[in-house]
Amino acid sequence: MSNRLAHESSLYLRQHEANPVHWWPWCDEAFAEAKAKDKPVLVSVGYSSCHWCHVMARESFEQAWVADLMNQHFVCIKVDREERPEVDKLMMDAVQMIQGHGGWPLNCFCLPDGRPFFGGTYFPPEDRGHGQVPWPQLLMRVSDFYHRNKSELAANADAIAQNLTHLTRAPDADGSAPSPEDLIAAARRICEQHDDTFGGFGAAPKFPAPHTLNFLLGLRGAAAVESDRALASRIDAVLTITLGSMARGGLFDQVGGGFHRYCVDRDWTVPHFEKMLYDNAQLLGTYAEAWARYRDPLYADVCAETVGWLLREMRTSNGLFAASLDADTDHHEGTTYVWTAPEVAAALGDEAFAFAQAYGLSDKGNFEGKNIPKLKGDHAARVRFAGARAKLLALRDRRPQPARDDKNLLSWNALVVGNLAKAAWIFDRKDWSELALETEANLWARFALGDGDGLRSVAHGDKVTLEGNLSDYAWFAEAELALAEGLVRQCRARRQLLAAPRLRPDPDALRGHALGARVRGPFHRVRRPVQERPERRGPCLGRHRALRPRPCDGEVGRRLGCTARRPERRCEDRATRPSLSARLPRRRARHERLRRGTSWQACQPTPTTSTAKGRARARATLSCWGWSSSRPSATRNASTGRTGSGSPCSFRSSWSWPGWPCRS
């Protein structure tokens, strides 16, 4: 026998359609039923990949005698928190106010008008100690109290409602931004809560907290922090310890890529095995920005493998990404992801012992007698065992797999688009940029209403339901801004070069404008000169990247009207990068063409026809930037230390153009 959830599209709701509980979906009719029968409302919130949601369903909701108590005394509503984040937020805030903590499954008791008055998370079916009230006993207590002390419950519900309203209002909501002192104080407070031994913030369980890490990353480049070396060093330590611990631990799937939900222990060994789209989307952007600052190759590996996991396991047939992977496989948590020593030995042969040492595998295991791989060696060991991990992944793919929730959420897919675009221009990955653009186009096609009357929020295949909420609009806007920034960074150089002689004859004015240096305060970004940076071979970072003279093609060029082809000049694998001696003849040839006054496109691998008009335009552009097209003199330039003050290598300022064949 099925209940009212049988016709719902949500996977989580359909998981409960066969329960003997008379579940309602979230709707006005359910509250009307509660008012008519004078019953309190039970709102049970969860999601399809939640392990403890499955546990409580098996122990209580599927048991006929427990369901009879729920049906007799309550109007029961089941809510998918991913579909209705506004309902989840309201109930979660109420439960956290009552209990001091929250989580899922979330069970909140409300008056017939929807105001919450009591709630909690997981409740066992019988008394197991630990101060947890058994679920059947709690049901009877709440129902009895409701009918005997209805006025007292109403007063309690009013107090909770007032507190919830107060929480939505900032105490000093006068429209002003936080002061630099406020931001510095916040950073210091965050750093005080850091676990300097294992990384992360606070005690177990530990969550990755990408918003906190992004705040510290953004603040780290500010002048106010740069001038305080003690604080700067402390933020560096917090970021590198935490990001490294998460990337090496069980939180990150060492075999297949992607991050699990959180870890139940202090040292990031045992994860809660579900994988959520929004966690991975945000952490992709966090690790990309961390690589931009610290250049740890482990961060780059994390980004690449996370994108690979998204494409391999999370992409749906409509070009969007699924919401989550379940924590359980065949009703057992983590079955797909753990390994025994014999399994590893059979898969890897002679390589098994060295792999086990590098990834902390043992006969005893670190999770219920089995092993969760956790990188113990350095990054070189990780590179060495890339083939071994591929073998284990192929073997793992033949196991039973966790269920996937195929619904597409506009907000979470928008997070993927924005952070994928950010990672694309940081790592100079054209394929990631194209993937972000394709996903963004699919979002418009799927969720935008044809009459321009707003956005929808949830898609189940071809069926799109529910009106867009604030997170949908906000994160979609952020995604569009991230895409626009990446496109502008790729194409602005060519357009500014062509416009520079007639629009901005002063190179210092052009540079200051492009770098955002017109307004300089205590939180403007501090960039060291290019010559002082220890790493020069990766993609150039920072705002001066916007001036790279690199035209583009494909979708990027079509959108911004850039027709010149973008040459593929950067080697993705540095091991295959040509040696300096092999590159010198090509560089000398480019310098010679530039010295003779040919167009800047002639310095690229794809040659262009050199005309008199092109030579004149190039000479005007080079003159504007302080470069001479005349034959160099034999004197040594004091600022550059190079021979020939008129050569293309001499420049008025210590700042140099990244991406050009010669840098001062």
Topology, please?
Layout: H1 11-14, H2 28-37, E1 41-46, H3 51-61, H4 64-73, E2 75-80, H5 85-99, E3 106-110, E4 116-120, H6 135-148, H7 150-167, H8 180-192, H9 210-220, H10 223-226, H11 229-248, E5 262-263, E6 271-272, E7 275-276, H12 277-294, H13 297-314, E8 324-325, E9 328-329, E10 332-333, H14 341-348, H15 352-358, H16 379-384, H17 386-396, E11 404-405, E12 408-409, H18 410-427, H19 430-447, E13 456-460, E14 463-467, H20 470-503, H21 507-514, H22 554-560, H23 580-595, H24 612-624
Parallel strand pairs: 1-2
Antiparallel strand pairs: 1-3, 3-4, 5-6, 7-8, 8-11, 9-10, 12-13, 13-14
Helix pairs in contact: 4-6, 8-9, 9-11, 9-12, 12-13, 12-18, 14-15, 18-19, 18-20, 19-20, 20-24
Explain how this protein is built:
- A four-stranded mixed sheet has the order 2-1-3-4, with helices on both faces.
- The protein is α+β, with helices and mostly antiparallel strands.
- It is built from 24 helices and 14 strands.
- It is globular, with a radius of gyration of 29 Å.
- The chain starts with 10 loop residues before the first helix and ends in a 40-residue tail after the last helix.
- The C terminus is likely disordered.
